[in-house]
Design goal:
The protein is α/β, with parallel strands linked by helices and 234 residues long. The protein is 37% helix and 18% strand. Bound molecules: zinc ion (ZN). Zinc ion binds next to helix 2.
Amino acid sequence: MLESWSNLVFGMECLGCGSASENLDPWLCPECRKALVGLSKEARRPSDDVVCLFPMEELTRRLIHLLKYRGISGMATYLVKHSCVMQGRSENLFPEFVRPLYFVPVPLHRARFRERGYNQAEMIARALATLTGGQVSHWLWRRTFHVSQTKLSRRERERNVVGAFEPRLPSKLSARGTVVVVDDVYTTGATTGACIDALGMDFPLDVKVCTLLYDRPFSARMDFVADRRAFWNP
Ligand SMILES: [Zn+2]
């Protein structure tokens, strides 16, 4: 166990399959990287305004857990760079979105932030902003503490997040541009939908959503089970 952890910490093991490899990049072995690029071709658009860079599969689930629960922030940039939407060129990321781009991370409640020390949505927003020349904009605030979304049904999720966010907009907003609400996983759209609602009906800029992963609503419960399991069993 100790050896396995030290290999992980010192980057000798592939974070996808756990096997020792001398050709890490530095996260994945060539096989897992190839699998990731394959998954990127399954990027989802649950609606015109929502872009999800990868489907939720065993590999992408592992990588997002490293970002979410271990705070490996470089993973956000790595995943965005390997997404099909980007295709290795930053100008390919959201070409149809009106510039400038304002990446607004779904805020974490203060208590959760204190517990973790970081907000994974902010890490993803930062990666997207760096790669597109946009900016991270903290324009939303989380009002109340909520139980983890992952164990709730769709209806419960919607009830849980309604009114959870309030806007903290700058006094002077640019006349054009696009707000991209950023989260790690899109399941029912309840959380990002509540964020969009919080910006208000009269919000003057285009509003879109980008998440790293798309998860089918019915598997969210499974994800909760996976969350509770040990890191993984190599
Ligand atoms: Zn691997």
